[in-house]
Amino acid sequence: MAPENDTTPATVAEGTAAGDTAKVGLDFIRTRITEDNASGRFGNRVHTRFPPEPNGYLHLGHAKSICLNFGVAREFGGLCNLRFDDTNPTKEETEYVDSIREDVRWLGGVWDDREFYASDYFEKLYDYAEQLIKMGKAYVDDLSAEEIREYRGTLTEPGRESPWRNRSVDENLDLFRRMRAGEFGDGQKVLRAKIDMTSPNVVMRDPTLYRIRHAEHHRTGNKWCIYPMYDYTHCLSDSIEGITHSLCTLEFINNRELYDWVLETLGAYRPQQIEFARLNVTYTVLSKRKLIQLVKEGHVTGWDDPRMPTLSGMRRRGIPPEALREFCSRIGLARADSTVEYSMLEFCVREYLNEHTPRVMAVLDPVKVVIENYPVGQVEEVDMPYHPEDASYGSRKVPFSRELYIERDDFRLEPPKKFHRLAPGAEVRLRYAYFITCREAVLDDAGNVVELRCVYDPESKGGQSPDGRKVKGTIHWVSAAHAIPAEVRLYDQLFAVENPNAAPEGKTFLDNLNPESLTKVEALLEPALATFKAGDKMQFERLGYYCKDKDSTDAKPVFNRTTTLRDTWAKLEKKGA
Ligand code: ATP
Ligand code: MG
């Protein structure tokens, strides 16, 4: 793990609302904004933006940026725009735009009517480019992409000037207009800024501003065949929108000089760019390129596969936005890259779900229990609260009868010491129902338990001891005749190693996929679960947090395991250490 230099948590006090920094230390970005407000630099305005490129679905890394940009705006009484950075016509799709909108809204981002597209500015950006040409600050270059790379030099060697660098303003204007008119093919010409081919900052060595792409754009159709480059577009879009603080990830640190150069040269309004560290999380990849590959090659079922670190995948898995916001708040902001443990996210998820989900009973690996002294055909309705500490959740009636199912794992033929659940001769409490004692286990020829013959104590109604005798174990159960069959999907990490990006020679991150990341089981649920809707979250008692999946049908509901009850990962890791 990389050292965490200069890490200031955005919030320190537990129980502080995500993003609420009123009472706690400020991170370096919020400190900077506070200083700018004090000096009146932006007239006390705070205006940020979240600028996704619509070329994939948003992931956990974007959550950090969303919480930061929208959070800062909210805390300082400012505004945050949603801006689609759509300058690459070949990789962008409206499907992505729609998903991004949905995901940002889900995470709590509010942008009102400030939904913008870099493509809305194409005309303005073009005018600015002509202005640069007229100022002698941009020129049309005929070098090929490969030649441009070659001429650029390296970190240790200066670049060389293109033979086309000193074209006259008139010639440049004429060529640039003809580029726009479609007279040239893809890659035949580019527009470059005329800055300094010997700059120690390679970004400043006459960067490309426009390229030719005869491609249809998802919003501007075939209106354009030249498209502005990201660096040029980004700073001008920020400027046009009056952004005060342009927050971006560290890899743009060298681009800041170009960002400032473009705006200063054009005499345009200049926001302040501030960089922060990208979020990396163990056992996952957070790069759109890799996530696209997982989807396109069918390693997962789609962008919203619950194993994916996409916001749509996490939503489908049952991770609440509140937990994600808390996670983003806890990890804080740093100026140096680091990797966050996945278990930290799980911690936030459990903490939230523990307080905010009803408890229900489900048996994932059923074994039958027959209560021999319980009348055949009798059914009792056991009243069970949905939440042990919060009466506002209400309660439901759970049918109890002579034949039940319990978890196979809650029985041992030969129980180890301190096994407080069911075993031959042992007594256990069925949650909220009765004490039962196992009389006999019926085995098949292979020695597998197929049925447990038990007796119950009619005096222990409600699971209360009738005479003060103690029963240590309490287990969950469902009534055989009333149980609903369901498919339950148990997820494990999508990748089997802590850093999936690091693959040995000749291998790729795909070789690090965990072949056991999904296990489907046929489970039996208490009947009340039929009333839950897709997206509803609940705790299966003693098993974990679950969420009803959109694949559910009336005949066969489907549930996703969001997370187990305890941090099994941290434990496993400790054991391994
Ligand atoms: P990727 O590397 O996955 O393709 P990107 O940075 O190209 O991501 P954009 O759509 O350009 O994706 O990202 C929108 C915003 O989200 C940017 O401001 C970017 O800095 C931020 N962002 C993307 N990934 C992360 C991350 N891992 N941690 C923090 N912020 C991120
Ligand atoms: Mg990007």
Describe the structure.
- The structure is a single chain.
- With 577 residues, the protein is of the alpha/beta class.
- 25% of the residues lie in helices and 23% in strands.
- The protein is built from 13 helices and 27 strands.
- The protein has helices at 28-39, 60-75, 94-106, 122-134, 145-151, 169-181, 230-240, 256-266, 288-296, 311-317, 321-331, 342-356, 568-576; strands at residues 47-50, 79-84, 115-117, 138-141, 190-193, 208-212, 226-228, 245-249, 272-276, 279-281, 338-340, 359-360, 362-363, 366-371, 380-385, 395-400, 403-407, 427-430, 435-443, 449-456, 474-475, 477-479, 484-491, 518-525, 537-540, 544-548, 558-564.
- Strands 12-25-26-27-23-24-13 form a 7-stranded mixed β-sheet, covered by helices on one side. The protein has a 7-stranded mixed β-sheet with strand order 21-18-19-20-14-17-22, with no helix packed on it. Strands 4-5-6-7 form a 4-stranded antiparallel β-sheet.
- A hairpin with a 4-residue loop joins strand 18 and strand 19 (435-443).
- The chain starts with 27 loop residues before the first helix and ends with a helix.
- The structure holds adenosine-5'-triphosphate and magnesium ion.
- Adenosine-5'-triphosphate binds next to helix 2 and strand 8.
